[in-house]
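Write out a record, fold above all:
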Amino acid sequence: MKRIISIFLLAGCLTTAAVFSVPAAAAEEIIITGSTTVLPVMQKAGEAFMAANPGISLSISGGGSGNGIKALNEGLCQVAMSSRDIKESELKEGAGKGVNAVRTAIAVDALVPVIHPENPVKNLTVAQLRGIYSGKITNWKEVGGKDENIVTVSRDSSSGTFETWQELIMTPDKVSPAALSQASNGAVAQAVAGNRRSIGYIGFGYLNSSLKKVDVNGVEARPETALAKKWPIARELYVFTNGAPAGAVKKLTDYLLDPRKGQKAVAETGYIPLPAK
């Protein structure tokens, strides 16, 4: 939401135009981009943050963790949302441009395999998930389901969710090129809800009644199992800034970490607040 007033002055025979942007109450804009997993948290908390800080305007967009970190390194945003940690190569790239990416954890997430509600499968092992996504297991009957081909739905390679899945589930294999690639958690959820033979994986905050979550290694995805690290696909969600948060950006990160404010928004969007210190 940009608090900008644009005034156009026309001179002569409408051949010359001058444009003046006058910030309302000198509003300071923070540009935030990156992970679609973190996006609902930032949107929820951001709305309340702007109401409490009328002198600060937030511009929030998705696009994937990798794209968010790239934008930070290129000076195109002040805050990068990410569902994975930053890579050494990204740190070096940023350093070469005078950017020192600093990480702040804002929530905990359980990455959850999901299927269509009509699918009778209730539990899969990590090995079975790896087999399905590598293309070695192609029929649901191989894992206790119906005699139907499996349709795998995955995230695009710029996604931190994809990279977490690759690291925690797929290693040493890789996701098959035959998997249907989607650009966001919401798109994965929609694709799985619309096809009873499909399987996907999404952030905990995207679970809904049109999907059936699958237990992994006999463990159910719940806030308690994620915090206790019993859930095998748990992770932290981050924001990255250029250097330690300062000024308006520090106000935002402090708000996100406040148990009565930003952490409340984490819970309201279906994610898991950070454990109390």
